[in-house]
Amino acid sequence: MRFAPCSLRLKGKMGSLIQVQDLVKVYSLGEVEVRALQGVSLSIDQGEFVAIMGASGSGKSTFMNILGFLDQPTSGQYLLENINGEKLSRDELAEIRNRKIGFVFQGFNLLPRTAALENVELPLIYAGTSTSKRKEIAQKALSEVGLKGRGHHHPSQLSGGEQQRVAIARALVNQPSILLADEPTGNLDSKTSAEIMGIFQRLNRDMGITIIMITHEPDIASFAKRDILFRDGKIVDDRNSALQG
Amino acid sequence: MTRLLASLRIALRALMVNKMRSTLTMLGIIIGVGAVIAMIAVGSGAKKRIAEQIASMGSNLLIVLSGSSTSGGLRFGSGTVPTLTVDDAKAIQNEIPDVKYVAPSQRGTVQIIFGNQNWSTVADGTTPEVLFIRDWSLESGRPFTQQDLDGATKVCLLGETVVENLFGGIDPIGQIVRIKKVPFTVIGVLASKGQTTFGQDQDDTIIVPLTTAQKKLFGMQFPGMVRTIAVQAKTPEAMSSVENQINDLLRQRHHIQPKQENDFTVRNLTELMSTAQQTADVMSYLLGAIASISLIVGGIGIMNIMLVSVTERTREIGIRIAVGAKGWDILLQFLIESLVLSLMGGILGIGLGICGTLILSSFTQWPTVFSIQAIFLAFFVSGLVGVFFGLYPARKASLLNPIEALRYE
After folding, report:
1. What is the pLDDT of residues B351-389, one digit of tens each?
2. Pair (B49, B82) in one structural domain
3. Which residue in A54, A161, B178, B376 has its CB near the most CB atoms, within 10 A?
4. Which of A65, A109, A126 sits opposite B324 (nearest CB)?
5. Is pLDDT at A29 greater than 90 in this prediction?
6. pLDDT at A12 over 50
7. What's the structural domain count of chain B?
8. Nearest CA in chain A to B404
9. Is B72 a residue whose pLDDT tops 50?
10. pLDDT digit string (tens) for B238-251?
11. Same domain for B301 and B388?
């Protein structure tokens, strides 16, 4: 089963999906100034599977937030499909997130006391999709992640791995340009982690979905095709993965 | 819009999750609206009762009283010197065209005896027109006539209260009673009228011909003088001009100088009624306003709970914003929640108000009137309260930073 191709997909000048140029992020924590990113540049093509590693405070989470249009850089440029988020309003950024970004979090971040199907539907609600279409698309997405028929269960009735799969389905419903995963296996045991990584690989390989993933575990990073290492707000290493999954 | 319906469903779902909390939050609005409905119903009932009572005293009625308004006034006791005459009454009848009937009256407290029963009451010596002026019909018997007046016959009409106390169950018509030791024949019984707004029992009275009263009962202390003249105007619109004309006429007849005060008072009962009704209105609105304070308290309760709710669901709000909810989506979601709370509270409050009023009136016999306008207004106001007090928490939610919200424990 394939998702229909998104007609709004544009290719950048150099064919890159993501272009980052001298990204700087500084924010103040009370009286202290924190320089989270100190000049980051890279480009990511469509279809890549990137793992971002680095110690706590290295800037990787800040970088992800900017990639996901949850935050704006202090200076520098970030282009996704040639879209520059710099001058956009809160609401316009929300719209971009809705259509272009899929988030997967360490803590799953599903709505509690809400059925899995309705969790998956959430981005579609904010996209204004009709009720019947929503259900149809959400059911398909749940099938894609192997949870067909479990749509009525609440998160409390699902295991960690199953919850993360619901989160992945949610991230995919609006056919985003990139999937951003922040420590997606952080709360899972090794067996379930491998299952989730298997899903990621399948999505990347068979559907060409671009995945950017933060992790601190080398085992998990090895599932990706490219490793980027952050330290003190800068990229210090950027190489293709030794092991290809 | 699909989005609006989705927001509504999301809001309802959130309220159902914690039914107890939602119910307790609504309580303030329920009580507030209930109290307002009840107060207005009671107030409207009082207003209606006042109107009925004043109307029962007679329509288009003016009463001319002896003595200036600064002395005597409503007091019919002895010691008040009558300054009006029977001729004054005749003049009013003849010279003011908008006057329909006049009935001069001389009153006094008397002892009435039948057999071994006695009763103290007020005897009203007046003319037959009084029955028309006061809209008084007879329960039984016949009224006295001009002949009775001319001949000063010793006949009397008794009110219900007097009949009850003197005769028990016996038919009083044709019986002889002694009023101030003078024998009178009862020729009629007055229909019941009840109490006035001033607290007087209108059925506790005897009516006799004016001439008989002057000769036999009140000893011709003040020959030709009467204490009051009842006047009925032809139309309600004419009342004000009749009042002025009586004033001018009597001033002229009594030779009162321009700078001198009147030695009489003219009371316009229709004016009195509208004043009394206005007072009832003010009371009613005052009570309603006080009850509205509990509406404000209820609204604050809603704001409080919504703030707690927003804080509790910080993470959830962060998720929604991250997947594409705009500020407006979040604002609407929480605003609908507080609106549902306040409107449901309003509906339940209206129900409570109506039930409470019905229970109250069955216990206290107070009259109550329900107004559809008040009910719609209460519903509208509770909606307003929901929007007003829900706005701040909803706005707070919509302005959350998604990154921080997602980190919130």
Report:
1. 999 999 999 888 887 778 888 888 898 899 999 999 999
2. no
3. A54
4. A126
5. no
6. no
7. 2
8. A70
9. no
10. 888 899 998 899 88
11. yes
Closest Cβ–Cβ partner in B13, B318, B324 for A94:
B324
Q: Taking CB atoms and an 8 Å limit, are B3 and A65 in contact across chains?
A: no
In a domain, B251, yes or no: yes
B8 interface with A at CB cutoff 8 Å: no
CB-based contact, B12 to chain A, within 8 Å: no
pLDDT for B285 beyond 70:
yes
Q: Is the pLDDT of residue A8 over 60?
A: no
Pick the residue of B9, B21, B323, B326 with the most A CBs within 10 A to test the interface with A by mutation.
B323
Nearest CB to B325 within list A94, A110, A129: A94
Reported confidence tier of residue A3, pLDDT bands at 50, 70, 90: very low
Determine contact: A118 vs chain B, CB below 8 A. Answer: no
CB contact under 8 A, A70 and B323: no
Nearest to A61 by CA among A215, A241, A209: A215
* Mean predicted confidence (pLDDT) in A126-153: 92
Residue B112 per-residue DSSP state: E
Query: CA-CA distance, B269 to A82, in Å (whole number)?
Result: 86
Chain B CB contacts of A100 under 8 Å are none
B7 shares its domain with B128: no
Query: Does residue A105 belong to the interface with chain B, where contact is any CB pair within 8 Å?
Result: yes
Q: Do A109 and B13 touch (CB under 8 A)?
A: no
Residue B269 forms part of a structural domain: no
For residues B220 and B154, which has the higher predicted lDDT (pLDDT)? B154
Of B3, B316, B327, the CB nearest to A111: B316
Q: How confident is the model at residue B51 (pLDDT cuts 50, 70, 90)?
A: confident
Q: Can you give the pLDDT at residue B77?
A: 40
Full domain range(s) for residue B34: 2-53+275-407
Decide if B9 is inside a domain: yes
Q: Which of A91, A103, A174 sits opposite B322 (nearest CB)?
A: A103
Backbone angles phi, psi at B354, to 5 degrees: -65, -45
- Contacting residues for B230 by C-beta, under 8 A, at least 6 apart: B58, B61, B62, B63, B64, B102, B103, B104, B105, B126, B130, B133, B134
Give this complex's ipTM: 0.90
Residue B191 shares a structural domain with residue B233: yes
Question: What are the pLDDT digits (tens) for B312-334?
Answer: 999 999 999 999 999 999 999 99
Tell me the C-alpha to C-alpha distance, in Å, between residue B337 and each of B110, B116, B294: 72, 76, 20
Maximal C-alpha separation, chain B: 106
Q: Where are the beta strands (DSSP E) in B191-325?
A: 205-209, 225-226, 228-233, 264-268
Whether the model pTM is above 0.80: no
Query: B322 vs A99: CB contact, 8 Å cut-off?
Result: no
A121: which residues sit within 8 A by CB, 6+ positions away? A134, A135, A138, A173
Per CATH, domain A47-72+86-240 is 3.40.50.300:
yes
What are the domain boundaries of chain A?
47-72+86-240
